[in-house]
Amino acid sequence: MSNEVSSENRDSGKKTLVLALIAGMCGNAMLSWLTVSEVTFSIFPLIALVLSVQALYQEYLKNPIPEDFPLVGLAAFFVGAFGHSAFTKAQYPDAGSNFFAIMVVLVLLFWIGKKMGYILKEA
Predict the structure, then answer these.
(1) Residue 123, in any domain of the structure
(2) Looking at the domain assignment, is residue 34 inside a domain?
(3) Rounded to whole angstroms, how far apart are CA atoms 1 and 16?
(4) Inside any domain, residue 49
(5) DSSP run (H or E) holding 77
(6) What was the pLDDT predicted at 2?
(7) Three-state SS at 29
(8) What digits encode the pLDDT tens for the residues 45-102?
(9) Could you tell me the superkingdom of the organism this chain comes from (predicted)?
């Protein structure tokens, strides 16, 4: 029985991280539309942002959150935001350099991997 609960919490954690990643990407897409003149408006990032935030809220109400998980979720949000920023700046080089955004994404992904137990597993 406890094996099922831990499996359910692990799947819930992954779902939360993916939703936070999507929310970060969509938030940055909306911000890019406002700040980068080459990016045109699309309604789809707004729809995806609303749906991902709603799903995050429903997941928050349904499942308990471990103590250190909000920081990991926030890091996943920033991975999505900075990842989309790097993609946009690679697509439109006049918007600026994407070096900082790529470095932030790599550091945050390493930290998330360490917190989730995929990198540098503790004995």
Answers:
(1) no
(2) yes
(3) 23
(4) yes
(5) helix 69-91
(6) 41
(7) helix
(8) 999 999 999 999 999 899 877 777 889 999 999 999 999 999 999 999 988 899 999 9
(9) Bacteria
